[in-house]
Amino acid sequence: MAYTENVFCIGLFILVLYVTGVLIVNSQRALITTMPDKLQALSGSCVQIPCAFEIPTIHSNDFNKSTNISGVWLKGATTFGTTPEIKIFNSSKTDSKFQGQIIGNLFQKNCTTVFYNVKNSYTDKYFFRIDANGPYRATDTYKQIEIFVQDVPPIPTMTDSVEVKEGTLVSLNCSAVAPCPEHPPNLTWTFPTKSTPEDHLQENPDQTKSVVSMVTFTSSYLHNEKNITCTAVYPVGTSYKTAEINRTLNVLFSPKDTSASISPSVPVSVGSCVNLTCSSTANPPVTNYTWFRISEGKPTQVSFRQNYTLNVIVEDGGLYYCEAVNDVGLGNSSEVLLAIKAQDKPVSPLVYGIVGGISVIMLIVILIAFFGWKRKSRFPDQHERTDNPLEQNPSVYNNQGMVKSKPEEQAEDQSEEIHYGEIIFSKQRPKETPAVAKDRDQVQESEYSEVKVTRR
Ligand SMILES: *[C@@H]1O[C@H](CO)[C@@H](O)[C@H](O)[C@H]1NC(C)=O
Ligand SMILES: *[C@@H]1O[C@H](CO)[C@@H](O)[C@H](O)[C@H]1NC(C)=O
Ligand SMILES: *[C@@H]1O[C@H](CO)[C@@H](O)[C@H](O)[C@H]1NC(C)=O
Ligand SMILES: *[C@@H]1O[C@H](CO)[C@@H](O)[C@H](O)[C@H]1NC(C)=O
Ligand SMILES: *[C@@H]1O[C@H](CO)[C@@H](O)[C@H](O)[C@H]1NC(C)=O
Ligand SMILES: *[C@@H]1O[C@H](CO)[C@@H](O)[C@H](O)[C@H]1NC(C)=O
Ligand SMILES: *[C@@H]1O[C@H](CO)[C@@H](O)[C@H](O)[C@H]1NC(C)=O
C-alpha cells in the first residue's frame, strides 16, 4: 500500500513539475509558432512553409496595437544581433537574401511563407520572428523547421497492394509530396491504362500538401507479377524532374492454360512406355494434378501425379485429360489421344472375318450379276423369240409394241423391267402349272395380265 502511494505521489510530483515547466517555458516564449519539423524541397522549385503563431496574452495588447508587422526568418541560429547575415528574409524589405513571400495574413497569425527558386545551400534549420514595429518583437527560439533541398524529387508512395484474388476490384493510391503547391507534380500511371485517375491536392496533418492519384481496376490473372508504376513529374523552371514507384501485383488465380501432352505423340505399340504430362499456370502453385481417362463416355481417375507414366496395354488406348487444382480453384486441359499402333495377332481374326465376309458377299453379287447378264443377253435375241413356243409370244409381242412407241433409253429400262417380270414368271410357273394346267388358254390369259402389272 505504502509503495503504491509513494509511486502515485512521485508520479503526481513529476506531472506537476512537467506542467510547471511547460507553463514557465510558454510564459517565457513571447512567440509560439506551429510548423512542420521537417520539409523536403526540390532545388530550382519553390517551397511553401505552413506556419501559424500564437502570442501569449501578456503580449497580445502590444501586438494588437501594432499597425505594421514584419515576419522575419532566421537561418541556422537566432543570434542575429551578432551575426546579421542569418537574417535571410524580412517581409517588410524587398532586398531580402531569400526570394520569398509571406502568403499568410500576419494579423490573423498566419505566417505561411513561400521561398522561390530554392538552392541546395538553403538546406538548414529556420526560426521565425515577429517584428511589430513597437514594443512587441519576439523570436520563437524553441521551434525550428528543418528544410532539406534535394536535386531529385522524393519517391512517391503507393498503397501496399495486398494479395488480391482474380476478379476483385483493386484500388491503388499514389501519393507525391508537393513542397511547392503552386507547381504540384503530375502523376501518371503506366498500368493499368484503362483507369481514369483523378489527381487532387490534399493537405497532410502537418499542413504540407501532397498530390494523390487513385486507380481502380478489376484484377485479372494476366495482371499477376506485372509492375504497376506511378510516376510523379515535377515542373522545375522550364523543365521537369521525375520520380517513380513500382509495385508488383500479386493476383491469386485458379489454374489457367492447363494442357495435357503425350510423349511420344505418335501411335505407340503395346508394351512401350508413354508419358502424359500436365502443365498449368496458377497462383498459388498447383497443389494437385489428376489424370482422367475417358472410358465408355465417362472420365475415370487414373493418376494423381503431374507426370503419368504407363507401360501401354491395349486397353490404355483412348482419350485422356488432366485437372489442376490450387487453393483458388481448378482448371481442366483439353483431351489428348493415346493412340495404339495396330498389331497383327490380336486384330487379324476380326479383320479377316470382315474381309472374308465382304469377299463372299461381293462374289455372290458378281455371280448374280453375271447370271443376270447372261439371261438378259439371251432374251433380246429375236431368233430365240421367234423360235420360242407360242405360249410366250403374246407377252413378247406386247413388250415389243410398247418399246417401239418409246425413246430408246427408256426402251432399255423397259426391257430390263420386263426381263425381271420374266424371271418371276418363270419362278411362278411351276406353282401355277399344276393348278391351272388343264386349260392352256386360261393360263395364257393370267400370265399376260401379270406381266402388265409388273411393267408398271
Ligand atoms: C487581440 O486581437 C485578437 C483578435 O484580433 C483578439 O482575439 C484578442 O483577444 C486581442 N487581445 C487583446 C489582449 O486585446
Ligand atoms: C524588417 O524590416 C523592417 C522594415 O525595414 C524593419 O523595421 C525591421 O526592423 C526589420 N526587422 C528585422 C528583424 O530586421
Ligand atoms: C494560412 O494561409 C495560407 C495561405 O493563404 C492558407 O493556405 C492556410 O490555410 C492558412 N492557414 C490557416 C490556419 O488559416
Ligand atoms: C485512396 O484515396 C482515396 C481518396 O483520397 C481514399 O478515399 C481511399 O481510402 C484511399 N485508398 C487507400 C487504399 O488508401
Ligand atoms: C518490375 O519491378 C522490379 C523492381 O521493382 C524490377 O526488378 C523488374 O525488372 C520489373 N519488371 C518489369 C517487367 O518491368
Ligand atoms: C518418360 O519419363 C521418364 C522419366 O520421367 C523418362 O525416363 C522416359 O524417357 C520418358 N519417356 C518418354 C517416351 O518420354
Ligand atoms: C490434394 O492432395 C492432398 C494429398 O495429396 C489431399 O489431402 C487433398 O485433399 C487433395 N485436394 C484436392 C482438392 O483434391
UniProtKB/TrEMBL annotation:
It comes from the Eukaryota. This is Ig-like domain-containing protein. SUPFAM superfamilies: Immunoglobulin. Gene3D superfamilies: Immunoglobulins. PANTHER family: B-CELL RECEPTOR CD22-LIKE-RELATED (PTHR46484:SF8), SI:CH211-171H4.5-RELATED (PTHR46484). The chain crosses the membrane at residues 7-25, 350-373. Residues 153-246, 255-339 form the Ig-like domain. Residues 381-456 are annotated as: Disordered. InterPro entries: Ig-like_dom, Ig-like_dom_sf, Ig-like_fold, Ig_sub, Ig_sub2, VCAM-1. The keyword Glycosyltransferase does not apply. Residues 389-402 have a biased composition (Polar residues). The keyword Transmembrane applies.
